[in-house]
User: Which sequence fits this backbone?
């Protein structure tokens, strides 16, 4: 179902701009940020600070990458209440209270969270080999990605994540004030469309830290590409999970921090 959109992803605000010529009163646009609570009928799962759009994608992707649902089929739909910014999800499985009590707050902007079930699952099974891409295609994807986001260009206050299937030009692109939220929105949409994530590349504008690697592994995405840097825990984890991790993707170069064998 389509999300109600009572708020735009950007809002106009009065500011004072100070330049060499002195202060000037102007208006500018900033990225919208709201607290969105994901819950079942009677259990609050998490509250995320996020951009108020594509909230069904966010809920679906978050529940999957957080390890709270075992299968994409467990997510049976949701209702979005923009008056309270609540997303009530219908699940075919039960979220146990002890799962919610075992959580790690991550370095993701907006205070990201990972649940122990996702950390334990991701740490046990490396991704299979088999999917490869030519180096030139990674460069082409990075070049395309740097030109994409109108919301980022307007506000400078959001992260963008895109998903490429088989190295093709991405059709799934999401912006959010939290890079982990943008990743979940892309994963959620891909799951709803039945995309084979085992043959995809996720491209992100933000740094890649360990929770993004966990989310990539949980979704089964074999290649993560960032315009920025990874953290050392992200590199160690990607190597352990056999996930190709690429940083500093520029027009004519990029750095492979983990599993270079997938890049021909």
Assistant:
């Amino acid at each position: 179902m389509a999300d109600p959109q009572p708020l735009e992803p950007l809002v106009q605000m009065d500011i004072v701009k100070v330049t060499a010529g002195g202060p000037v009163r102007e208006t500018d646009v900033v990225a919208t940020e709201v607290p969105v609570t994901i819950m079942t009928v009677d259990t609050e799962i998490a509250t995320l600070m996020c951009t108020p759009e594509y909230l069904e994608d966010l809920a679906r992707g978050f529940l999957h990458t957080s390890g709270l649902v075992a299968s994409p089929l467990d997510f049976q739909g949701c209702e979005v209440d923009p008056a309270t910014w609540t997303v009530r999800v219908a699940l075919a499985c039960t979220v146990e209270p002890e799962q919610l009590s075992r959580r790690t707050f991550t370095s993701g902007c907006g205070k990201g969270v990972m649940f122990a079930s996702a950390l334990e699952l991701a740490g046990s099974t490396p991704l299979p080999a088999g999917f490869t891409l030519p180096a030139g295609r990674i460069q082409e994807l990075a070049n395309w990605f740097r030109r994409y986001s109108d919301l980022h260009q307007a506000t400078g206050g959001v992260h963008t994540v895109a998903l490429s299937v088989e190295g093709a030009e991405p059709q799934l692109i999401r912006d959010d004030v939290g890079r982990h939220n943008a990743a979940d929105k892309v994963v959620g949409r891909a799951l709803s469309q039945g995309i084979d994530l085992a043959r995809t590349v996720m491209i992100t504008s933000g740094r890649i830290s360990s929770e993004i690697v966990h989310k990539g592994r949980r979704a089964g995405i074999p290649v993560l590409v960032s315009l920025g840097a990874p953290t050392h825990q992200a590199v160690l984890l990607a190597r352990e999970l056999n996930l190709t991790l690429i940083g500093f993707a520029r027009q004519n170069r990029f750095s492979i921090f983990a599993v270079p064998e997938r890049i021909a």
User: Anything to note?
Assistant: The helical segments are 55-65, 97-101, 116-122, 135-146, 150-155, 179-192, 210-219, 232-240. The mean pLDDT is 87. The first strand starts at residue 10 and ends at 19. The radius of gyration is 19 Å.
